[in-house]
Design goal:
Layout: E1 2-6, E2 12-15, E3 22-24, H1 30-34, E4 38-43, E5 50-57, E6 65-70, E7 73-75, E8 81-83, E9 93-95, E10 108-118, E11 126-133, E12 136-141, E13 144-148, H2 150-154, E14 158-165
Parallel strand pairs: 3-6
Antiparallel strand pairs: 1-2, 1-5, 4-5, 6-14, 7-8, 9-10, 10-11, 10-14, 11-12, 12-13
This protein binds zinc ion (ZN).
Domain USP: 1-166
Protein name: USP domain-containing protein
Family: Belongs to the peptidase C19 family.
Length: 169
């Protein structure tokens, strides 16, 4: 669910949104995805002013699997894409409780998969991934599977992160 507030007349509106993953810009954090900042092209239904409104996003339904995708490419002239400098850091545990409409339910998620893109362009390069299985991390590149450490995983410039909801509590 997203709520927007007009900066001109302070009219508030909300709407349901469905998304399958959380897409983050290069310098955007999870916090800024939910506590949205400004939407420049939104037209207020009350005063009709187009302009800066503030937006917040809250989860109404907690997914079993949460997928975060970092934007790592941007369009260059023509149809080529280039990789953008990537600063998205992440942790092995993600708490979505503050971003839920129901804050009495604890929404804790554990990282279990990381996809990494190697190379400088969208047209070329190679994808590898890291998977946590039976409590151990593995690095997978084509048919090569190697055990690795959590520290190595957390140093990666991640493209996609997979989290699973922790229902043990
Ligand atoms: Zn307004």
């Amino acid at each position: 669910m997203s709520k927007v507030e007009c900066s001109n007349c302070h009219h508030k509106s909300s709407q349901e949104e469905h998304f399958h993953h959380i897409s983050l810009g290069a310098a955007e954090s999870l916090q800024s995805f939910f506590d949205g900042g400004n939407v420049a092209d939104y037209r207020c239904e009350q005063c009709q002013m187009v302009g800066v409104t503030s937006k917040e996003v809250r989860l109404q339904v907690a997914p079993t699997i949460a997928i975060l995708q970092f934007k790592i490419f941007e369009k260059e002239e023509g149809c080529r894409s280039k990789k953008i400098p990537h600063y998205g850091s992440f942790q092995t545990v993600m708490d979505l409780t503050p971003h839920s409409t129901n804050k009495t339910v604890h929404l804790k998620y554990n990282l279990y998969g990381v996809v990494v893109h190697l190379g400088e362009t969208l047209e070329g390069g190679h994808y590898i991934c890291f998977i946590k299985s039976m409590g151990k991390w593995h690095q997978i590149s084509d048919q090569l599977v190697e055990e690795t450490d959590e520290e190595v995983v957390l140093e990666q410039a991640a493209y996609i992160l997979f989290y699973e909801r922790d229902d043990r509590e």
